[in-house]
Amino acid sequence: MSQCLPYGHFNWLTEEEKIKLDIIKLKADGSDGYIFEVDLEYPTSLHSSHSDFPLAPERKHIQVEHLSPYSKELLQNLTGKQCLTKIEKLVPNLYDKEKYIVHYRNLQLYVELGLKIKKIHRVLKFKQCPWLKKYIDFNTEKRKKCKE
């Protein structure tokens, strides 16, 4: 909450502006921030190194065919059912992403760690600043004094 947060001047970039934008060079503390809608490729060469903690989680319905044999057995033993609920879950996975919406700082990390951007659909630009920093710092100091 002490970092730069959006505060206004939201607008969509044009095609020309999208092309000129260099994602890697965007500054974390710059006056402009961005939200991207992109298609991401998760290269198979990264699957073994990222399998414990995949990047770019998605909200998905879990399908039985995506479960391991052990998980299928647990499902049967614990619930007596062979089907899952229709509730979406936040799922980290190694699949490619389509129309994935992501903050530019997360996207920079994903690209740095090896994900490939296949297509940029849209970019939302906004003004940002650390407008909550004073409030957070004030409360932090008050908590410190309270414990002393």
Report on the architecture of this protein.
The chain has a domain at about 5-45 and about 95-145. The chain contains five helices and six strands, in the order βαβαβαββαβα. It has helices at about 15-20, 45-50, 70-80, 105-110, 135-145; strands spanning about 5-10, 30-40, 60, 90, 95-105, 115-130. It is extended, with a radius of gyration of 20 Å. InterPro entries: DNA/RNA_pol_sf.
Quick gist of this model?
The chain is of the alpha+beta class and 148 residues long. The chain has helices at 15-20, 47-50, 69-79, 104-112, 133-147; strands at 5-12, 32-41, 58-61, 88-91, 97-103, 116-129.
List keywords for this structure.
single chain; alpha+beta; four-stranded antiparallel sheet; two-stranded antiparallel ribbon
Count the helices. How many?
Answer: 5
Mean pLDDT: 91
Briefly note the structural class of the backbone.
alpha+beta
Q: Based on Cα principal axes, name the global outline.
A: extended
Percentage beta strand: 25-35%
Number of strands: 6
Low-confidence stretches: none
Summarize the main sheet.
4 strands, antiparallel
Distance between the termini: 24 Å
- Read across the widest sheet, the strand sequence of neighbours is 1-6-2-5
InterPro entries: DNA/RNA_pol_sf
